[in-house]
Write a structure and sequence with these properties.
This protein has 187 residues and is of the alpha+beta class. It is built from 5 helices and 10 strands.
């Protein structure tokens, strides 16, 4: 009897895990996430008075979705250097992506593992993977990041498997690829 109930539940679990949630980041960019995303306060260290000094158009926005296999995040980062990085495949754009990579890894005290480019909607973005110490354990975490500059905004997608046992697991890889490949850009 228990075996029968378990077997009946398998198709339901497979269906439930396949329902991804859309997130419209702004009028130009949308993404699919494995569960409902929560917008987090990127500026939690600022006092309300300090936050009011930062114009809303210049504020970073961040959403996070957590599943048993992973953490998925997307950041929308206004870029004040629009003229310097707006041209596709320019040295300035490549330098900007390299700064994003360097700063991400340095802040996490990590080590770069790989980096490459990717394309979406005729635009070229930058993808990199790095390993960094987990602040709550003696483990190392893997981070996968994709960044895309569009006009004056940098969009960064971050994927982190939740445990070392899922770092190289198939479910984690499938979830990361689906998250990254769901990025859509409207002109």
């Amino acid at each position: 009897m228990k075996l029968t109930r378990s077997l009946l539940a398998v198709p339901l679990l497979a269906f439930a895990s396949d329902v991804w949630q859309p997130l419209k980041v702004d009028k130009t960019v949308a993404i699919q996430l494995p569960t409902t995303a929560e917008e987090v306060n990127f500026y939690s260290w600022l006092s309300p008075a300090e936050l009011r000094k930062l114009p809303p158009a210049r504020r970073i926005r961040m959403w996070v979705a957590r599943t048993p296999q992973s953490l998925c995040a997307i950041m929308r980062i206004p870029n004040p250097d629009k003229q310097r990085v707006n041209k596709q495949d320019s040295p300035q754009r490549r330098a900007f992506y390299e700064r994003v990579e360097h700063n991400s890894i340095a802040e996490a005290h990590g080590q770069l593992l790989t980096h490459t480019t990717f394309s979406v909607a005729g635009l070229t973005g930058f993808e990199f993977m790095y390993r960094a110490p987990n602040t709550y354990s003696n483990q190392q975490d893997l981070f996968y990041t994709r960044s895309l500059v569009l006009d004056s905004i940098c969009y960064s997608l971050i994927f982190r498997p939740t445990s070392p046992s899922t770092n190289l697991g198939r479910a984690s890889t499938d979830q990361r690829l689906r998250f990254f490949n769901s990025l859509t850009v409207k002109p």
